[in-house]
Amino acid sequence: MPLPYVLLSAAVSLDGCLDDTGPERLLLSSPADFDRVDEVRAWADAVLVGAGTLRADNPRLLVNSAGRRAARRAAGRPEYPLKVTVTGSGDLDPAARFWHTGGDKLVCTTDRGAARAARLLGRTADVVPLGPALDWRTLLEHLRDVRGVERLMVEGGGTVHTQLLQQGLADELQLVLAPLFVGDPAAPRLFGPGAYQGGRLRLLDTRRIEDVVLMRYAPTAPGAGPDATAADRHWLRTACDLAALCPPSETAFSVGAVVVAADGTELARGHSREGGDPVVHAEEAALAKTDPADPRLPGATVYSSLEPCARRASRPAPCAELILRAGVRRVVTAWREPDTFVTAADGTGVLTAAGARVVVLPELAGLAKAPNAHLPG
Fold first, then answer.
1. What is d(CA 39, CA 18) in angstroms, rounded to the nearest whole number?
2. d(CA 300, CA 354)
3. C-alpha to C-alpha distance for 18 and 20, rounded to whole angstroms
4. Which of 63, 136, 145, 314 is most buried, by CB atoms within 10 Å?
């Protein structure tokens, strides 16, 4: 099930605080950075904030630029993005500015919290119960499938950011570092304790904005279970991009593959017909660049734009078998192999029968198929 692109946005002090807790709130961002945030809001289909942040900060979460609002209207989009808040209890202040400015509002809550939120807010917002407990994946699926949200900006607070990162659902973190020390031990922090992804985030970009620095990061560590993470989608897109590098062929698919360790380290990549070999497959090319004794392989994930082959005539072992021999037990792919060259190919069946997990992301099938559009079937 495709999910929205989730962008986390926050500003922190040099000692990691979101803001101070004194009678006058300390604003960490500069005027130019507030304008950048406004630009990101205009980009988003929805802006989400936790109920705790609503109570603490009483934000409006508007697109303030008249020019950006006009551009949204010209593109056939609502003047303001959908405003979303998340609450387990449904305890919301109906007088908060959030409800009385901007466009449509949505409350995502539990079955228990829905009745209370609806009673407090009346027709001010749509209230959606998501079950006995809040589940972020269910919430994101609702935003995409029911509300048409493809780009979600998350502005806090710390609990919301923590949960989305820990569950591998954040595609990007935009972090602004302010040249201030707050020093208050009671000041809120951006992230809470718990288990985060292993390894290092990938730095996408840095930019100076007056006296603050914007840093953009993306997660890299693959998922470990049947549900795809944001990092899984990134690496599979990379594999699909590699497929476009394949020399064209009328008798074979163009496929890209990447092998990634559990901590997000790229171990190898390859593509079909790489290096002038007319019959080498993408997974075969990538695995040939790894050390068979590498202890990271059993915990690695192979990303392949096309399902690994189960039978082939050009080599003694098909790619599904090569993956299993390497010790890899997780494969993420975008496209199940059609009958174009091999009837009833079932690399997924070979892999799962041997205990490997195969995750299919059909939302990326179009990217995987594009370099193969000239082939029949």
1. 21
2. 16
3. 7
4. 63
Q: What is the pLDDT of residues 62-112, one digit of tens each?
A: 999 999 999 999 999 999 999 999 999 999 999 999 999 999 999 999 999
Residue 260 confidence class, pLDDT cut points 50, 70, 90: very high
Integer Cα distance of 280 and 214 in angstroms: 43
Report d(CA 192, CA 92) in Å as an integer. 23
Query: Across the strands, what pairs with 74?
Result: none
Residue 181: name the closest of 56, 19, 25 by CA: 19
Locate 283 and state its tokens: 């997974």
Q: What is the pLDDT of residues 323-370, one digit of tens each?
A: 999 999 999 999 999 988 998 989 999 999 999 999 999 999 999 999
Burial class of residue 38, CB neighbours in 10 A (0-12, 13-18, 19+): middle
Report pTM: 0.90
